[in-house]
Design brief:
The complex is a heterodimer of chains A (114) and B (114). Chain A is 0% helix and 58% strand. Chain A has no helices and 11 strands. In chain A, a hairpin with an 8-residue loop joins strand 9 and strand 10. The termini of chain A are far apart. Chain B is 0% helix and 53% strand. In chain B, the strands form 3 sheets. In chain B, strands 2, 5, 6, 10, 11 and 12 form a 6-stranded mixed beta sheet that branches. In chain B, strands 3-9-8-7 form a 4-stranded antiparallel beta sheet, with no helix packed on it. In chain B, strand 7 and strand 8 form a beta hairpin.
């Protein structure tokens, strides 16, 4: 499972509240990713990180921010949660080199915004 | 930019029957190709990948995929599926030489019936 954990695994929150999801890895991989999974859309990249304090936006970054102060932790924050952010969120890490490594996924966090 | 099209959202098939899950992609650069599988309530697992070399790649559980550059396809097949193969299957592409993200298709739900 490449040593990836996500917390919490399930969360229900109200519209307008901030929410932070945590991804933790145990193997010191440089690249980490946050995706959201929605029916009919597959997985879409929110943000990714290529090192401590180095992050970049993905396809659906609006309304989300990330931080990576340590190699092992990559945090995803919903600044003011909306119902459209109800989704399953997956963290991933990339093994190997920058251009040919494989991605391994965490178990996911199911977020419901009411 | 890249895009991935999975032509079938749902594929029901009887146990021990053959199956093909279709994947077509669009890219202006050469790409690496992946198939991921997601079992119910789990994260994604890498099933197989094409980076270079032989265009036919195999997994350990009977699935194989063939890269067809002229048709920009990477269809996944299995000559005899099992109940336990019931899952959602995602095709993904990564531009070769890129440190950026995978682009996923919308997924195909394979349901193996007894």
């Amino acid at each position: 499972d490449a040593g990836i954990t996500q917390s919490p695994r399930h969360k229900v929150t109200e519209t307008g509240t901030p929410v932070t999801l945590r991804c933790h890895q145990t193997e010191n991989h440089r690249y980490m990713y946050w995706y959201r999974q929605d029916p009919g859309h597959g997985l879409r990249l929110i943000h990714y990180s290529y090192g401590v304090k180095d992050t970049d936006k993905g396809e659906v970054s609006d309304g989300y921010s990330v931080s990576r102060s340590k190699t092992e932790d990559f945090l995803l924050t919903l600044e003011s949660a909306t119902s459209s952010q109800t989704s399953v969120y997956f963290c991933a890490i990339r093994t190997g080199g920058a251009t040919d490594g494989e991605q391994y996924f965490g178990p996911g966090t199911r977020l419901t915004v009411t | 930019a890249q895009s991935v099209t999975q032509l079938d959202s749902q594929v029901p098939v009887f146990e021990e029957a053959p199956v093909e899950l279709r994947c077509n992609y669009s890219s202006s650069v050469s790409v690496y190709l992946f198939w991921y599988v997601q079992y119910p309530n789990q994260g994604l697992q890498l099933l197989l990948k094409y980076l270079s070399g032989s265009t036919l790649v195999e997994s350990i559980n009977g699935f194989e995929a063939e890269f067809n550059k002229s048709q920009t396809s990477f269809h996944l097949s299995n000559p005899s599926v099992h109940i336990s193969d019931t899952a959602e299957y995602f095709c993904a592409v990564l531009p070769s030489g890129s440190a950026r993200q995978l682009t996923f298709g919308s997924g195909t739900q394979l349901t193996v019936l007894p």
